[in-house]
Structure prediction request, 416 residues.
Amino acid sequence: MWFDIRFHANDMPAILDRLFGLVDMSYWDRRDRDFDAKSKNGPFAEQFFDSRFSVERALLQAQKIFRSTGQYPLHGQPDSMIEAFNIAALIVRVFDRVSDYGRGIIAGRIRDALAGQSLGFNPFAVEIGVAAHLMMMGYDVTFMEFENQARFDLLAERDGARIEIDCKAISADLGRPIHSQQLYALGDVAYGDMLALAKRGGGYYIELMPAGSLHNSHDVERVASLLRQTLGCRHDYDMRDIGKARWVEFAIDESWFMGNGRPTAEFGTFLRQHRPAGAAHLLCVRPPGAGGVFVDVVGATGDHTQESMYRELRRSRNDQFSRTFPASIAVRLVDLDASQISSLADRQRSWLPQVATRLFGSTERRHLHSLAFLAPAADMNAAGDLRSNTGRAWSFTNPTHPDAGDERLRLYPSTP
Prediction:
């Protein structure tokens, strides 16, 4: 299968109508009501949903606008909406080109995503996005699992070379003592206290160090009590069985923030002086014209992401690939942006290349040609009247594979 992945604004109304018609509209409406109900917990819940479930959130917003105005929002939209339109266009075009069996699989994937599975549309979007990237690179792509031909997802062919590809979406929370959903829930529990302090002016950074993990609502309530006490006394604080907090005050520089309140790179540079290594998510409360409160939560039990990621990838079935052709795994680390993945891929100080080396080193995976870690779409590129981008990739090739030097199997451009 190959098709031109580009699309134009005037294509989108028909594409979106088709997408919303692939499953009963009640699935979309039910998911929308679920988001609305849970967003009432506070502003951080909404941030989490926008990050973890960006595709369905954007498509639901487009559907709301259509119901209100009779038109879809096609121009001047944020990158998240454009990326969702990309995925919608790809889903519809693939749907039109697969068998009835494959169409049933696609409809089932949409229903599963809207039923509230933990990663939402991400697993489906990774597979569709990788296929689109390969087509853009000139490969002919077969959706093997959609057609019940194999356990791996894609077969890519170009100039006589073939490679089997399995696509995975894995939460970046894997192996971490602090899970992002619970972190944002913590922010909502303490939001009132954080907002009150921010309105007094000045800048406040708090590093919370819980004695245990942050995996459930009980953990959230315990750590929230530590955060509230710290905000109240405005200095370092220690609660023996719960954890401790480090307090830093600084003067806010208005040049650190854009007109919409979002921080600039200069603010990020300043804050890195205070943030601990490995901090993944920052809770930020900064009302317009006021001060700001910035909170990191750092687990005391250590980050086991590298080992957990290796085990997750190692669990791929030994018979998943045919072993007749080279094989590749494409991984999307959900909840991480391109800059965070880039830091993990640094060959001098982090672990993505180590995971690749361990996978390549097993005699059971001699067929494994390459492993790629994918970033979400970021700087969207022009494509007709709208824009599209498959994001960056950090790819590692198995140096012992017989076809390691075959340029026809280089699926991703070199990434610095």
